[in-house]
Write a structure and sequence with these properties.
By secondary structure, the chain is mostly helical. It has nine helices and no strands. The protein is about 80% helix and about 0% strand. The longest helix is centred in the N-terminal third of the chain and has 67 residues.
């Protein structure tokens, strides 16, 4: 008897399962297809993402090679094409390279290009600081000391990422303006900074020695 009841019970379960399947089979099939499609779509997206990154990398390297070969105009066009790249890293690098190439041809235009990047909060504070520094570097030979001070002094603070380069450039600008005291102050700040490189310290020692030997002596009253 127990076998009969077991068979009946199994038959009932099969009937119930069949009814459930008939009721929901379309949804199950749709869900299965969706899972497969999503997985395939992700794999396709991932493959395309890697492919797009590799392609952007190759284009950037080709543009960089043109710049290194001295083909400024061609390099600038190649970098400009990458500024609309869907790859944000190469897009930003290309914007910086366009500004660099522009500055080599026309300092004023280069300053404007770097100022535009410096004003763009989406690039992040470090890139903004780098752009400000590059703009100031293009102006060292032509701008007034007041403008150089306005641009460089905020970059020389103890917590600024490019402070030692900014101090060094500021020192050269001061020396050019015959402000030996300001130049010495900037060079000494670099020399005393524990994060300054050995090369920077060596240059600063040389510049401080130059200032000591050439600074006009103040006559005693």
């Amino acid at each position: 008897m127990s076998d009969i009841f077991r068979e009946v019970d199994e038959e009932v379960r099969r009937d119930e399962a069949l009814k459930i399947w008939e009721k929901y089979q379309n949804w199950v099939i749709i869900l299965a297809i969706a899972i497969v499609a999503a997985t395939a779509g992700y794999k396709f997206w991932q493959g395309n993402k890697i492919k797009a990154e590799q392609q952007a990398g190759a284009q950037y390297q080709a543009a960089l090679t043109l710049a290194q070969q001295g083909k400024a105009e061609e390099a600038q066009k190649a970098f400009a094409a990458l500024t609309s790249s869907p790859q944000p890293g190469y897009q930003l690098l290309s914007r910086l390279q366009v500004a660099i190439e522009t500055g080599q041809q026309d300092a004023g235009a280069g300053v404007k290009a770097f100022d535009t990047i410096a004003a763009d909060t989406s690039v992040g504070p470090v890139i903004q600081e780098a752009a400000k520094l590059r703009a100031a570097m293009l102006l060292v030979d032509t701008a007034s000391m007041d403008e150089i001070k306005t641009r460089l002094q905020p970059l020389t603070g103890d917590r600024q990422p490019f402070r030692n380069t900014a101090r060094e450039v500021y020192g050269y600008a001061a020396l050019k303006a015959n402000d030996f005291d300001l130049a010495a102050k900037q060079f000494d700040a670099v020399a005393q900074d524990p994060e300054a490189t050995a090369a920077q310290r060596q240059r600063m020692d040389a510049m401080l020695s130059y200032i000591k030997a050439n600074q006009p002596q103040t006559k005693a009253p």
